[in-house]
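Below is one such protein, fold included:
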Amino acid sequence: VWLLELGKRGVLLHAAGRLRASLEAFPMLREPLAAVEEDYIPKPWYMELPVLGMTLARCFSTKGLRRKEQFEIPGEGHVLDLEIWRREGWETFPDAVASRPVVFFVHGGAWLFGNHEKHTQQVFLRRLALEGFIVVACSYRKRHWPTHLLDCAAGVGWTRDHIAQYGGDLSGGLVFCGASAGGHLVSLLTCVCLKEETSPDAAFAAAQQRMAGVAVAGIQMWYPALDPRDESKQGVAACCDEQLAATFFRCCVADRKSQSPAAAREDDGAAWEVFMPTWQIRRNRSARFPPVMILHGCNDSIVPLGHSFYFFTTLTHLREDSRDILIPVPYARHSFEKCPSKVHDVTLNVGVAWLNAVTGRHVVSTAPF
């Protein structure tokens, strides 16, 4: 057993080294990453435990960092749950910066499970709060589409109107962050924010109204499900030439069980447009799309790495931004932070460094490593 454990640790250390070396391709991360690594905030020992560490972290390491909020969505009567992560007394720290950038986080769970409290990004949100960010973690109803999108849009509207009470600064824009299905939702929220004209789709139009006046500074996504129709053909085939990911999304999320795979394949796309961020990007051809960072495991068997490459290629073909980064994480699977390792530590540092750069909390260097 100890030989197996030793071998696993060796593989993870090798993966962490490969990941750290790959960051040399992104000069804009040089100074922010060096600053984050120099001021690294160590994790308690129990946060290194696989799976159980996340539960213990929530019980023992979030005191003074979390606060629950609830509000009723106007016109619906539904009460939406939020969780605010912030470090109390941050302003008294000697090296504290004046601005408190705001990160709006949407959890994953295949669009069907989880909530603002139960997700795999607890350690990351804790780290952001300790670094001086204010994080709004939003829950959403897992009913039929588009309640997922509309609830998140309502959460963004609440953040716009009330986050100043917590010391949040939206003058530089709001940063979206999402994991898995949450990555898909924040990409659509960004497309909604960038639409200049009222969308003909009722759901998009309602989301536009709820998020009016919100500027987006950047999007950070962890193993995001950005290609629900699986146009990139990276997933597993299910039946009638339809990919498994497309079958799942069509039947379980879009609630189109009555539509046959053949009909879905022959669909002209009008019905799928509201689900596909790549289609929204191509249609709007907006050069105003904010910078994007994607971290995706190379061995992800749930959401293929190819989905992120497909989205990233579509975006970078339409506009160039030196802050766009796609990082394949060696040997990592879906929700790789469930098993803490040196690889996870590197991704945490990179995630924080990139957020510091896009929110202007650190001078960005263009010099090579």
